[in-house]
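Our platform keeps sequence and structure together, in a single record for each protein. Nothing more is needed to write down the fold, since each code stands for a local backbone conformation. An entry from our holdings is shown next, in its original layout:
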Amino acid sequence: MPFTYRKLTVEGLTLRVGRTGAGASHDSVPLLMLNGIGFNAELMEHLSRQFPGRPVLCPDMPGSGLSPDPVLPYTIARMARAMVTLMDRECPGRRFDVIGFSWGGAVAQQIAVTAPRKMERLALVATTSGLPLPIANPEVLRRLLDPVEYVDPSKLTANFHALLHEGGATSGLLRRFRAPTPSGVGCQVGALAGWSAAPLLPFLRMPTLLIGMVEDIIVPIAHQRALACLIPHARTVEIPTGNHLLPLAVPAKVGQPICAFFDETQEAYAY
């Protein structure tokens, strides 16, 4: 089922939130899906279909999709609080699973270290623990981190299309893409700059799955291997082919191992 969308205000941020599984059983565990930098929720719809029979929520970050620009810059910690508030409001009294893809993986880790009692299980896909960062493709890194690239909306759109192509995006995925605003992308880059969850990751106790693509040139597989060293007992899956956008372009490639992981860890740890 496609997402249904509505706008909500949480922690002073107005977000358009996609949701599916409205008729799911109250016993099913809600799922929060957090997207990559500048990406809109429509890009996550096909991945969400890998998890039928449960509530799935996927927000557009400020300035992405149809969420308005933030009034002020924000931090990863503030966004993590906003996501916990969102889930408390939409699925009150229920712990939830989180899938964090790329930039969304940073927010997912922050939720895990600051609100562990809210989270049932954690799946991190093609993401990083923050600074210090393993070296990525220099040209890709330059385009992601150079503020000049975000000033001209037409240049910003062209750069994102180039990144989508480099990440292995299909024409269908490109048609679902909505260009973010310069302010929206700038705030996401700014939030990630200087952030790191690495010192607290060894204290995580919820079941955790790490998925990375060996050919990823945007978030190299070294990021996942670093996370595997930091998170106790994390399971890892390395996909030998496919680039950064594989989870969105071919969702079954990551959806199947995540579903298997969720099924095997159905009994949550007691905190």
